[in-house]
Amino acid sequence: MTLSTMIILMMSFAAGLVLGAFYFVALWRTVNRLSSATSPVRLMLGSLILRVAVVTAGFYFVMGGHWERLAVAMLGFVLIRKILTYRLGPQKAAEAVH
After folding, report:
1. What b/e sequence results for 9-42 when a residue is b if at least 16 CB atoms lie within 10 Å of its CB, and e otherwise?
2. Segment 55-63 mean pLDDT
3. For residue 69, which of 19, 27, 24 has the smallest C-alpha distance?
4. pTM for the whole thing?
5. 53, 25, 84: which is closest to 45 by C-alpha?
6. 42 is in which domain, residue-wise?
7. Number of separate domains in the chain
8. Residue 86's pLDDT band (cuts 50, 70, 90)
9. 52 contacts 30 by C-beta, under 8 angstroms
């Protein structure tokens, strides 16, 4: 594996982290706003469509026709999910409300 390939894969991993952070932080914020929303269904569906569109386009761009880049980006996405679940889990959400 060449140095340029390693750099591209590291950048793909970082992009997966960013995409995951966007997706899960936006989801967390949406869920926190549901109780005060005038139309919770519209908020949830709008958020879902936006999050999925951004992440799908991001993965498509990062992939660039190479499945290896997509796999590494998805690894970053899953890792940030684990990190954010730990940091923003039910205990932290309950503390933020009170």
Report:
1. beebbebbbebbbbbbebbbebeeeeeeeeeeee
2. 97
3. 19
4. 0.86
5. 53
6. 3-97
7. 1
8. confident
9. no
